[in-house]
Structures are given as structure tokens and as C-alpha cells.
Amino acid sequence: MLKKAFVNGEEIPREAVQHEFERLARLYSENGMPADELKRNVERLLSQAQEQAIGAKLLLLRARELGLSPDELVAKTCSGTPDPGEAEMEEFYRANKATFGDAEFVQVQTKIREFLRHAARGKVLAAFIAELREKAKVEYRDA
Length: 143
What we know:
Elements: E1 4-7, E2 10-11, H1 14-30, H2 35-40, H3 42-66, H4 70-78, H5 86-95, H6 97-100, H7 105-135, E3 138-141
């Protein structure tokens, strides 16, 4: 059973955690995780969903402080993230060739670019959220 989470005294609503849980479950399912494995990992996924809901709350609070929408704050935070270079994309293609089947690099180049771009921006955003978390008061209390 998850403890209730609070950010700067504000409770993270169960609905927010449930929303993140459903999103994670859908993502893992779409990427090949069998239903029985999802069921075995419910507690871990709930914990991960709660942490993501905390991160979303931290972003929302910071965006309000700056007079921005959360989407604007994310865009601003990730704006300097460089796009992957040709060599990086080709290396990714070679390392994951089996995933692409018979497709040639030029056929999957756009997908690889988007995947690597998303991953790089995810790292930048995770680091930003970690900074916000260090400055915030995050608490867990019995439900």
C-alpha cells in the first residue's frame, strides 16, 4: 500500500497517481510487457506512478511561479537540447539492427531521430525535476 505523498504540504491526489499508473501500464503493454508481468509488478508501477505524479506537481508549481504553463516550462527547459547527430543515429541503428528487421537506415532514420531526441529531452527534464525536488519538501505519510 502506497503512503500518501505531499509536495510542500499539498497532497498528491490519488487520481493523479492513478492517471500516471494507467499511462505507465499502457506504455509497458504497448512495448511488449505481458499482462501477467504487469500484474506481478503492480506495486513497483504504482510507486513509479506516484513519483511521476510528484514530478508533475513540481513542474506545475514551478511553472506557476514563473507565470508559465507546464508545457511552456518543459519546452523552455528542453529547448537547448541538441538533436542527435548522424553518427549517433547510425550507431543506434547498428546496435539495434534486429529491432528494425530488414529496414535500411534511411527508412527508419526519422523514427530513430525522434526516439533519440525524446530520450535526450527526457534526461534533461529528469535532471530539472531532480533539482526542483531538492528544493521542495516531499513527504510520505501513512494513508
